[in-house]
Amino acid sequence: MLGVTDLPTYLAGLVLIILLPGPNSLYVLSVAARRGVRTGYTAAAGVWCGDTVLMTLSAAGVASLLQANALLFGIVKYAGAGYLTWLAFGMLRAAVAMWRTRHERAAGADADAAGGEPAERPFRRALVISLLNPKAILFFIAFFVQFVDPGYAYPALSFVVLGAFAQAASFLYLTALIFSGTRLAAAFRRRKRLSAGATSAAGALFLGFAVKLSLSSV
Q1: Which positions, given as ranges, span the membrane (predicted)?
Q2: For position 157, what pLDDT does the model report?
Q3: Are residues 167 and 30 in contact, defined by beta-carbon separation less than 8 angstroms?
Q4: Half-sphere exposure of 59 (CA within 13 A, CB side)
Q5: How far are the Cα atoms of 81, 113, 176 from residue 213, in angstroms, in the given order?
């Protein structure tokens, strides 16, 4: 099928990979819980655009360049880890503000302001989270290449087909997260302590992603 081999195995592996939690999906869930469905899809669009760029770069051979150049890989790796760390501390600061104001009637509004939402720009932030992830580039090339027929005359078309399936799976998964996030938002508005705890957990997870990325190797 257009140079794609063993499609059922690819789809099975893709589902498992999509379901693994990562900074992209966690950020989309967080945005949807705080700001609703429309803004959640705005963040998701940033993820999809970022993934499209990474798939294109992988098909163009950039992943091989990162694998061969340890210095370049290190620069991209630490830039991504630094950005995730910055996001993590922003979430933790917002959580501290929520804990301090949880007994006030206006706690919800104060917490939103503490999160910097008016200037948050979810699309751009999700896009940057996606792009500053060299391991994702390496993943795409390492995973995709296993299902491309080396004898097919148009390998770029095979990458397009594989990428289309990956984006479709991502769309379904992020849509589920977005609508789950709106349900969580209702609970957060009623329970400020729950909101502060969830924000703290999200910040801790982002910090964990940063550490994991900084310790990764080619």
Answers
A1: 12-33, 45-66, 78-96, 126-148, 154-182, 194-215
A2: 82
A3: no
A4: 18
A5: 6, 30, 26
Q: Six-digit token pair at 34?
A: 């705080």
Indicate the Cα dihedral angle 39, 161, 4, 6, nearest 10°.
30
For residue 63, what pLDDT is reported? 58
Whether 210 contacts 81, CB under 8 Å: yes
In the DSSP assignment, the letter for residue 146 is: G
Backbone angles phi, psi at 4, to 5 degrees: -95, 130
- Which among 132, 127, 128, 159 has a CA at the least distance from the CA of 58? 159
Q: Report the predicted TM-score, pTM, of the whole model to 2 decimal places.
A: 0.67
Buried b (16+ CB within 10 A) or exposed e, 162-184: bbeebeebbeebbbebbeebeeb
Query: First and final CA of the chain: distance in angstroms?
Result: 32
Other CB atoms within 10 A of residue 113 CB: 13
Which among 20, 23, 140, 126 has a CA at the least distance from the CA of 81? 23
The mean pLDDT value for 69-88 works out to 72
Tens of pLDDT along 23-66? 888 889 888 887 888 999 999 999 999 989 888 877 777 656 65
**Token pair of 7 as six digits:** 């499609």
